[in-house]
Write a structure and sequence with these properties.
mainly alpha; 2 helices; 0% strand; DUF4164 family protein; coiled coil
Length: 85
C-alpha cells in the first residue's frame, strides 16, 4: 500500500469514527427527549442533563478535530513524500 492510500484509509476511518460518535449522541439526545432550550451557546444550561449533553458534544468535537488533524498531517506527509521522489 502506498502512502497516499494509507493516508486515505486514515481519513476514511476518522470520518467513520466521527459519524458513529455523532449518531450515538443524536440517538441519546432523542431518547432523552427534547431539551427546552436547545441552544448550545446558552449562558446557563437549564439542567444537569443539558450540561452532560453539552459536555459530550464538546468532547466529540475535540476528538473529531484531533483525529481529522492527524489524518490531514498524514496526507501532507504523503504528498511531501511524493513530491520528493
Amino acid at each position: 500500500m502506498d502512502a497516499a492510500s494509507a493516508a486515505k484509509d486514515r481519513v476514511d476511518r476518522a470520518l467513520a469514527l466521527l459519524e458513529r460518535r455523532l449518531l450515538d449522541l443524536k440517538s441519546r439526545a432523542a431518547g432523552a427527549g427534547r431539551a427546552p432550550d436547545d441552544d448550545l451557546f446558552a449562558p446557563q444550561p437549564s439542567s444537569e442533563t443539558d450540561r452532560a449533553r453539552i459536555h459530550e458534544l464538546e468532547s466529540a468535537g475535540r476528538d473529531a478535530a484531533e483525529v481529522l488533524a492527524r489524518a490531514a498531517d498524514a496526507i501532507r506527509d504523503s504528498l511531501a513524500e511524493r513530491e520528493a521522489r
